[in-house]
């Protein structure tokens, strides 16, 4: 009885290929949340860019909504919760406020995703405009409630407009990335 000298090599090669495939799937799954977290950290850094932190809630809301509809496994509830806590830490908000509002937005998007996926871009943008505005106003209400006084209204209106305005850009980049994540090999 002779052992096949190539059999252990093939097994090792197969296991390394399987490991590489699992790592690739994990990286693809974590990419939307990781990029969103990186954007939070970069925009919260003192760069001298005026109103950089004002862009954060709108960008994060748009990212959470988009990826919750198109790839809910990549923007899961724990990832959304972590992004919300990171936003609370860099925005000096009460811990859990952003996380709570982002989780509500995520839950609505995941729950309605099959209906939302049938909409064209304009319909999706309108739905996000309503949900993003509601999320901004809920943030304002919760922060005002925790501060025991109403916060100024101008920033919340600005946040609503920014969230609505940034969605098309994020949706275009997200659509491109979504297709690249689904079909990583170049099309010939």
TrEMBL record:
Residue intervals passing through the bilayer: 26-45, 51-70, 77-93, 123-147, 153-177
UniProtKB keywords: Membrane, Transmembrane, Transmembrane helix
Domain of life: Bacteria
Annotated protein name in UniProt: Rod shape-determining protein MreD
Species name: Acetobacter estunensis
């Amino acid at each position: 009885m002779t052992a096949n000298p190539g059999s252990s090599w093939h097994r090792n090669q197969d296991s390394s290929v399987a490991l590489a495939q699992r790592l690739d799937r994990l990286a693809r799954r974590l990419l939307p949340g990781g990029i969103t977290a990186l954007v939070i950290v970069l925009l919260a850094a003192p760069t001298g860019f005026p109103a950089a932190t004002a862009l954060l809630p709108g960008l994060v809301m748009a990212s959470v909504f988009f990826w919750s509809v198109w790839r809910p496994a990549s923007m899961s509830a724990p990832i959304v919760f972590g992004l919300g806590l990171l936003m609370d830490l860099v925005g000096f908000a009460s811990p859990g406020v952003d996380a709570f509002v982002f989780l509500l937005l995520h839950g609505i998007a995941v729950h309605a995703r099959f209906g939302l996926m049938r909409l064209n871009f304009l319909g999706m943008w309108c739905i996000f405009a309503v949900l993003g505005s509601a999320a901004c106003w809920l943030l304002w209400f919760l922060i005002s409630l925790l501060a025991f006084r109403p916060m100024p209204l101008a920033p919340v209106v600005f946040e609503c407009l920014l969230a609505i305005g940034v969605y098309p850009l994020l949706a275009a980049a997200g659509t491109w990335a979504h297709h690249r994540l689904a079909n990583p090999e170049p099309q010939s």
